Amino acid sequence: MKKGTRGSTAWRARLPVVTIVVVSVAVLTTAVTGAAKPPPGIQEIPGGHWVYNSLLQAAFHIDGGTAGIDAQVAVPGDPGSQVVQGDTSGYVVGGTRITPFGKSDLTAGPPGVPPSGEVPVAVETAGGPYLVYRQAGRIIRLGDPPAPISAGGPVGDPVATAEGTLWLPRIASGLLCRLDRGADNVSSCPVALPGGHFGALTLVGDKLYFVDTSDGVVRAVESAGLGVPVPMGLGAGADLRTAANDVAGRVAVLDPARSLLHLVDPAPAPRRPITVPLPPGQYDAPVAAGSVVVVVNRTSGRLFTYDADGRQTDDKPLPPDGGTARVVRGEDSHIYVDGGQGAHVLVVAKDGKVTDVPVVPPAEKKDQPAAAQPAPGQGPVAPPADRRGEDGRPGQDTGTDRPGPAKPNPPPPPVTPPAVPASPPGAPPGVSATGEAGAVTVAWSAAPANRAEVTSYRISWAGGSRTVDGGTRRIRITGLANGTRYTFTVVAINKAGTGPGASASATPAAAAAAPALTVSNRGGTAALSWTRPDLGGGELVHYLVTGTGFAQQTVTGTSASYPGLTAGNSYTFTVRAVTRTPDGQTRQGQTASRTITVPAPTITISRGRDTSSENCHEPDCAEVNVTMKGFAPNTRYAIRLSSSSNTNVRTESTTTGADGSATYNELNYDVPGQTIWVSVETPDGRITSNRIRWT
Fold this sequence. Notes:
The chain is mainly beta.
């Protein structure tokens, strides 16, 4: 038996809590062993899912196996609140308060104040539950007392293993960090990502993987770092969205730009990925449990479920509550879709079928004996009449004046909850900020209206604010300083007032300028050099260097070379800087480009100064000047002198310099009227000079 406890108010700082407990030895023994039934008035709530109905101001428990509501607890809370549960307590989590309640005694405790107005990611795991405020970089481990924990900066979506280790990706700093069960700080970031890489964490079974969307691979997270990359077969993409859990051993990856759902195998010898085309629209990240994966199309307002082979198993509209529906994986491994006001929940069974459950108080069960049932072919069975005489003793049934069947009491009229007046909107969910050159784009989803239409949204930051109409979900803020971090807060407004804000931060940064590039040909090798460009407020990751017909190079210096140029061909070389913005975004800079043409090897001869030797006589003897260009550098070549009457007058040799050129004037000739030339044998064939007539 588990006995529920009320939570503490110490979300920012621990407040004193006084609890008086009187437990006998017998009760303590049975509480530990589970040998006794719960005491009268205490319910034992099984695992499942809790949802908060903001209209009724109550949390309701849903049994995932039966898709039925079996408990409720009155809890004051914010519109659009979510419920997260631990072993003994549940917590209604909103933008302005976190209210605990006991799961056994079904009573609410005093509320506490959350560390941020943003919508946190709730993680139900051993040692938790946890609330992760990603933009604020804060974690709350709920309990008595709660523990505030710093994540060391903004983090991506967390995942938790079965034993209670919480993993947090710090994408901006390229680290994967862990919060061990029971720890009060993130003391270890044992895995470093490759420079400039980004992605998400996921669990396959209980093994942790990093889905590297920057190069389209998945890697196991090992104790010493990342494992061998396994290609997903999808290509790279910054917008790829990954489920936090596997679907029957496959990782669900959503490509929102192309409306495709991929199911990929992370094994070293992977099965071919399964690709499922989705209807056009705007999609959230997929949610997987067991052999079911769920995707939500926000544009059409529909929910789709698929099995591990990519076959669609159901298609249902989202709950008609208003506000933004929330898809969660329950601690019982069922998937639940809470309506924006918590008035409906879609329960996804393990076969993918979806049941719409209205969130209303469960029917009361009365301890009454079952009514008698008629035998086949008979009418209704009435209870026997009690015939008594005037003296009170049982009388005989004479068959006359027999009263008819007793009329049942009419059922009580249904209780209609009182109308709830309009209240200010809830916090806009899904607030994001993306920096660019001198600007930031802020986006959000519809805020819970709370029974009055949202008429406008106000976006504020240090230095300004903007107000847009209630149908707008995105705004581009310009005129910002590159390299300066801005925090943007979005609030919704209706006729009842202004709701709580949700925030996101971004740092504008321009793409790097083009480097000043020079390229020269040094004897068949392209030598590239450049100057470091203006990085636009970002941090240099590396340079990407390309050359026609050559593999791309990644270098951190300011020079590169490409040997093996072919004479007579033209080559185009490019260099661009890759930078990382202060928000961790990778950005490619402007490209510098240069084209060079490699000249074909040439030999030029001319008559030089007069000379004489044993075989060359005055006055017709003179040197033959030989000039070679475009040959391989530092290479020894044989030079053959030929004439119209002798194909090999003389052969001598010379060596080219570092630029592939050479001059030679030690050949001589003395036969007037003959035509002479020089030739050189190369691996690509014989190169022949111009021809001159000897006079």
